[in-house]
Amino acid sequence: MFKHMNKPIWFLFPYWTLFFVFVVVPVLAAVALSFTYFNSIQFPTFIGITNYIQLITMDTVFMQYVLPNTLKFALIVGPVGYFLSFILAWMLAHIPPKPRTVLAIIFYSPSLTAGIAMASMWRIIFSGDSQGYLNSILLNLGVIVEPIQFLQSPQYLMTIMIVVSLWSSIGVGFLAMLAGILNVDQTLYEAAYIDGIKNRFQEIIYITIPSMKPQMIFGAVMAVVGTFQAGYIGVALSGSNPTPNYAGQLIFNHIEDYGFIRYMMGYAACISVVLLLLVYSISKVTWKILGEKD
Predict the structure, then answer these.
(1) Which domain does 99 fall in, by range?
(2) Is 1 part of any domain?
(3) Is residue 273 very low, low, confident or very high in pLDDT (cuts 50, 70, 90)?
């Protein structure tokens, strides 16, 4: 019986099994729990769309702080980080292989060590006492007369979160773009200059980007997903969840607050479903913008 089956399909079986167990099942479980009251101890109680109604009409923190903060953070970090990834990848593609490899590792490493760097570098830089690097410099220059509580101030926390996120945003999308640029057929550039292309900018617009559409789309999707999952940054910097005056509170933090601090798992599942829909919608828009046109 198995002789007549398409054997290469069986190589996909482990992938689809893992995908179903670790992606499909958790998503379906979250959707199911979002319609329940579940305190992590008692058996879930079905309450219909009550959680969604409460989220939209009664959760003032979500509507007033969390959602605007998340959109602001995503609309700045996502596009800017994506643009930086492409520019750095394009620049590295034009230098010799050995220094390119070293610099690629340097640029990529912040995305791997962001958690360690958060504690050992950024919190020291923005420390609220006179020993913090930034406060020390400003005090010595006479710009301020007393230390500023950067990480506890609603005025500065979101800006610092954006800076730190951009620093660590050069991730796997950057590597995909670098690979895409390096694999562009060089004869296309020669033909393009014969046809009238005059500078590097036109080269990027008409040759490089169209030739690496799959890598551009992959980098964009990874930027969207990574941005919406970066909620740990505000908590790691400020040391508390919720963040001071909810200044750095993102949807990811709101889920953690209700799910693992208040143990309102049904409501946390509802918020996670909203986050999933938000990420999916923005990913679809990104695909429409960068995807292949019919």
Answers:
(1) 61-290
(2) no
(3) very high
Q: What percent of the chain has pLDDT over 90?
A: 21
Domain membership of residue 227 (yes or no) is: yes
**Residue 87, in any domain of the structure:** yes
Task: Please report, for residues 111, 134, 135, 136, 137, the alpha-carbon distance to residue 142 in angstroms, rounded to integers and kept in the order given.
Answer: 35, 12, 10, 10, 9
Residue 40 lies inside a defined structural domain of this protein: no
* Count of domains forming the chain: 1
Smallest CA-to-CA distance from 137 within 152, 154, 150 is with 150
Task: Give the residue among 49, 17, 55, 12 at the shortest CA–CA distance from 34.
Answer: 49
- The residue type found at 194 is I
Residue 57 buriedness (CB in 10 A; 0-12 / 13-18 / 19+): exposed
Which CATH number characterizes residue 163's domain?
1.10.3720.10
Rounded to two decimals, the pTM is 0.82
Distance CA(88)–CA(103), nearest Å, equals: 10
Cα 270 from Cα 33, distance rounded (Å): 8
